[in-house]
């Protein structure tokens, strides 16, 4: 377990929480806050949530592999492990003492280290906590850390850090925005691939990931949360880019993505993947970037790197 | 090394190529392949003959056509005791059937063979959606009424829509035209150069028809006596007036139009191959010898090379093995998937840096004399029924080489290259007899 989590109090969850129930509770919570006066808190929960006995299911993993274009290997794709383990982090965000509203949070970036291959049927323990509550030019950001271990093994097999932004929420005492507002000017390269995403994309990914956040499900539910139309899950785009990096990445790697303009559905997304090799010609890293071919706006960019 | 016997081209026969949803809209791959085969049988007197093997294929193929070539043989005038097999290598299918059968002839496993290919863009295999397919398969596996209901309940309205085959590359989602548009931009190929190539393809094909070149290479079918796509009267003005169709989404100035890209086409072609002894014993002509062939593939998925650039690698490997250069080639048959494809290949072979870094050569591979390129027209004018193109080219080149005879005391020599989906390319060398 990583150093920052050591001082935290462990809360054992009896099972992996359902994201659907967490969203309902969050909506109820949001409604309550409209009535009562929320007290702004500038600290994160002093707790890490721990769930044991999680097992990747073959059928669900296969459905995920089919949708994302992953080869149907027996090793769980890195993005699939995220869908399995992230509800533990969501339950941290759903705590009474979590300082930011869960609904409407924006996924800024995601970092994954896949250190030990996880096969379907492996028995896994999941630990999740929040850290790095910081100011951002348009609100407050927080990192949700999730670690996955094989049962009875101290080595972290998979580690994810998901950074989220609560837009328009400014907490007393958090750092003032730094230089993270600077964005480099983006000039689209020649694409190496193009995705045609239909309006079902959000519902399809929700079905395999369990992430039924209303902004991804339909135009109506998205509009209720202030979006023009439904948007693709950031992790759908990142996971598809990961799949398209291909078999060269091997079983263990680091996978980073930064999300920018949301992908409003339906959409065409242009993708460029650039491979880099080491002196011996072996794969070292792939850089990927996705953008809107009409507006030229960047949706996401990231890397997959040899561990 | 053991000396192998030679494999030769006796002749070829095809049906005129039709534009999709035109004259052959109601005929299947099997119908067209059988028609081309029967024409070949009639021309070379092969009724009831047991041929060593017939190899052919189609790119867009119905699942029921798992034995397409054998079924075409059974429906033809050939002996029903003629074995047959299917080949599928995207647009290189036709050329690969020729090379495979020639290898068998050279090894002595067979004495004669018919190579061929067919494709229909009109009678395309439309399939049910993946959702419906999975639900129906689950229904078939279900044992109880409850399981059957559960399977049926999984069918959603959007699953009912049928799915037509696409030309998109499975790994990139880009169509072949879009892929070529990227390569076209990378190699800076102008719209004008593409239109010029298209124009000479139409003119060369029309001239070949005028002088009766195709008279013994073609069997009329369904009212067609010439390729329906051919436009003898086209001009730079007409080609220049067409709107661009590929590359408009890709941020670069688009240059590719319906005029300098091949149209979707229906058609079939066949080539009769044999050992010299087999042809001579039957008093059949020998047009050319199939000397050698080479396949290549490129890593296009993340753009290391363009999708249709594999022939750029296959040709230098093949000529290198034979100790030949472009100077030794009298006819170049470079399949015109798009005008820009041919021009990108020519540009790459002339590019010193590319040839050094990517082909591992000392410098530029060479310059193709445009007067020797596709002298009887190619796919831009004739059309391109994917698997039928290889057979069309082999028959045309073999006849052209035979007519030319010798060049400077050696047999006239021709090079064929065909690009294909999946980053594939196949090349071959033929010599006059």
UniProtKB/TrEMBL annotation, chain B:
Active site residues according to the UniProt entry: 91 (acyl-thioester intermediate), 384 (proton acceptor), 419 (proton acceptor)
Domain (Thiolase C-terminal): residue spans on this chain: 287-431
One Pfam family linked to the record: Thiolase_C
An example Gene Ontology CC term for this record: cytosol
Phylogenetic placement of the source organism: Bacteria, Bacillati, Actinomycetota, Actinomycetes, Micrococcales
PROSITE patterns the UniProt entry points to: THIOLASE_3
UniProt similarity note: Belongs to the thiolase-like superfamily. Thiolase family.
Protein name: Acetyl-CoA acetyltransferase
Domain Thiolase N-terminal: 8-277
Known EC number: 2.3.1.9
Keywords tagged on the record: Acyltransferase, Transferase
EC top class, as a word: transferase
GO molecular function, one term: acetyl-CoA C-acetyltransferase activity
PANTHER family, per the entry: ACETYL-COA ACYLTRANSFERASE FADA2 (3-KETOACYL-COA THIOLASE) (BETA-KETOTHIOLASE)-RELATED
């Amino acid at each position: 377990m990583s150093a920052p989590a050591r001082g935290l109090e462990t809360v054992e969850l009896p099972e992996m929480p359902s994201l659907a129930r967490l969203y309902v509770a969050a909506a109820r919570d949001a409604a309550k806050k409209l009535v009562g006066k929320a007290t702004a808190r500038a600290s994160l929960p002093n707790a890490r949530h721990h769930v044991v006995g999680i097992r990747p299911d073959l059928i669900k993993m296969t459905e995920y592999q089919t949708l994302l274009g992953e080869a149907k290997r027996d090793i769980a794709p890195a993005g699939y492990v995220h869908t399995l383990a992230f509800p533990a982090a969501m339950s941290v965000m759903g705590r009474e003492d979590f300082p930011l509203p869960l609904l409407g949070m924006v996924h800024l970036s995601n970092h994954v280290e896949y250190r030990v291959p996880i096969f379907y049927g492996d028995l896994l323990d999941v630990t999740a906590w929040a850290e790095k509550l910081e100011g951002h030019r348009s609100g407050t950001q927080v990192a949700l850390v999730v670690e996955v271990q094989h049962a009875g093994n101290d080595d972290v097999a998979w580690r994810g850090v998901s950074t989220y932004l609560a837009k328009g929420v400014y907490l007393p005492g958090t750092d003032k925005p730094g230089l993270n507002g600077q964005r480099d000017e983006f000039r689209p390269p020649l694409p190496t691939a193009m995705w045609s995403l239909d309006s079902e994309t959000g519902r399809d990914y929700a079905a395999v990931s369990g992430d039924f956040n209303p902004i991804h499900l339909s135009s109506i539910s998205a509009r209720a949360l202030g979006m023009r139309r439904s948007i693709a899950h950031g992790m759908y785009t990142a996971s598809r880019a990961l799949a398209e990096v291909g078999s060269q990445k091997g079983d263990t790697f680091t996978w980073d993505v930064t999300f920018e303009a949301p992908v409003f559905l339906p959409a065409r997304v242009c993708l460029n993947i650039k491979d880099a090799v080491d002196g011996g010609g072996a794969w070292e890293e792939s850089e990927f970037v996705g953008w809107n071919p009409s507006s030229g706006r960047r949706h996401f960019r990231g890397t997959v790197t040899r561990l | 090394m053991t000396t192998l016997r030679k494999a030769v081209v006796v002749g070829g026969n095809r049906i005129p190529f039709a534009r999709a949803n035109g004259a052959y809209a109601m005929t299947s791959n099997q119908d067209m392949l059988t028609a081309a085969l029967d024409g070949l049988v009639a021309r070379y007197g092969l009724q009831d003959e047991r041929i060593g093997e017939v190899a052919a294929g189609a790119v867009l193929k119905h699942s029921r056509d798992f034995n397409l070539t054998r079924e075409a043989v059974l429906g033809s005038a050939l002996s029903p005791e003629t074995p047959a097999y299917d080949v599928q290598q995207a647009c290189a299918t036709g050329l690969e059937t020729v090379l495979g059968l020639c290898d068998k002839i050279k090894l002595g496993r067979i004495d004669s063979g018919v190579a061929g290919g067919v494709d229909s863009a009109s009678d395309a295999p439309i399939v049910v959606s993946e959702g419906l397919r999975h639900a129906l398969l689950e229904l078939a596996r279900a044992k109880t009424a409850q399981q059957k209901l559960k399977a049926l309940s999984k069918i959603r309205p959007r699953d009912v829509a049928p799915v037509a085959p696409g030309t998109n590359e499975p790994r990139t989602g880009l169509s072949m035209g879009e892929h070529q548009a990227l390569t076209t931009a990378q190699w800076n190929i102008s719209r004008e150069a593409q239109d010029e190539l298209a124009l000479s393809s139409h003119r060369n094909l029309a001239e070949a028809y005028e002088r009766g070149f195709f008279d013994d290479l073609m069997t009329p079918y369904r009212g067609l006596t010439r390729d329906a796509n051919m436009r003898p009267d086209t001009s730079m003005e007409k080609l220049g007036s067409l709107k661009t169709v590929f590359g408009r989404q890709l941020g670069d100035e688009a240059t590719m139009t319906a005029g300098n890209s091949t149209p979707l086409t229906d058609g079939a072609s066949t080539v009769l191959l044999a050992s010299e002894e087999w042809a001579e014993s039957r008093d059949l002509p020998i047009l050319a010898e199939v000397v050698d062939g080479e396949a290549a593939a490129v890593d296009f998925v993340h753009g290391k090379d363009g999708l249709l650039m594999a022939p750029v690698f296959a040709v230098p490997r093949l000529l290198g093995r034979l100790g030949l250069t472009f100077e030794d080639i009298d006819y170049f048959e470079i399949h015109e998937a798009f005008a820009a494809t041919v021009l990108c290949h020519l540009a790459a072979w002339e590019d010193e840096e590319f040839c050094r870094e990517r082909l591992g050569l000392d410098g530029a591979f060479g310059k193709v004399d445009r007067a020797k390129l596709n002298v009887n027209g190619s796919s831009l004018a004739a059309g391109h029924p994917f698997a039928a193109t290889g057979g069309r080219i082999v028959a045309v080149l073999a006849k052209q080489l035979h007519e030319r005879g010798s060049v400077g005391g050696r047999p006239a020599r021709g090079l064929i290259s065909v690009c294909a989906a999946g980053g594939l390319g196949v090349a071959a060398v033929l010599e006059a007899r």
